[in-house]
Amino acid sequence: MSEFAELGFDMLRRQMLDDLAAQGREFARRLGRDHFSAPVMAAMAQVARHQHVPYAVRNLAYGATPLPLGFGKTASEPLIVALLSDLLDVQEHHRVLEIGSGFGYHTAVLAKLCAQVFSVEIVPTLAAQADARLAAADVKNVTFGIGDGRYGWSVEAPFDRILVTAAPEIIPQTLLAQLAPGGKMVVPAGLPGAQVLLVVEKDHAGHLRSREVLPVKFAALLRADDSTDLLEQAE
């Protein structure tokens, strides 16, 4: 890519950060402060989103719009990435489970915030592409797995934080079980048209509590049989 093109993307990324600073004030009641956290903003500044999306949509990388992933899925806009990351409250020593790798952009942001990310993607093509993009960016603290996100990643559990980037109708019990005591999960859940973004916390005694953040509209969390059907349609 030419130096001129990279300069253009740098300008767009700076504009995105300015927009996020302004939008953070709109979420003051939900975040408990009028800005996204400094670590989240730093991670968003460091990860070049245009390097984590296909060339065909690269000019839209920093825009305020979801991007199509294919296979009936979308990648969230930067505002949602910042909001989910902030609500997750990731610390440097945490091990994070991400359900839905997508393009790998949000994975790369999480990797800047924590010790290790385990990212599960149900569509093998997307997982391979995300893995290749993060390898090209020299991101070394991410491990990808292919499978139905409802089952999490039992051999690596428990996790300090779990982020679900697609919406199940009901939060899978398996994911709740893989959340460590003192851990936190951010997940959109509910029927289409009635989804709510939730923050779920598990105390050190293993008791769960949740709070609603805001109404949302996410792609449904695919099951293994759903993914098979989509892959067959794409062939």
State the CATH topology: Rossmann fold
Name the CATH superfamily assignment: Vaccinia Virus protein VP39
State the domain count: 1
Structure annotation, total helices: 8
Task: Tag the structure with descriptive keywords.
235 residues; alpha/beta; globular; disordered C terminus
Structure overview:
- This protein has one domain: Vaccinia Virus protein VP39 (Rossmann fold).
- Helix 7 links the parallel strand 6 (about 160-165) and strand 7.
- It is built from eight helices and nine strands.
- With about 240 residues, the protein is α/β, with parallel strands linked by helices.
- The longest helix is centred in the N-terminal third of the chain and has 22 residues, at about 5-25.
- Helices cover about 35% and strands about 25% of the residues.
- Helix 1 packs across helix 4.
- The chain has a seven-stranded mixed sheet. The protein has a two-stranded antiparallel ribbon with strand order 1-2.
- It has helices spanning about 5-25, 30, 40-45, 80-90, 105-115, 125-135, 175-180, 225-235, and strands at about 65-70, 75, 95-100, 115-120, 140-145, 160-165, 180-190, 195-200, 210-215.
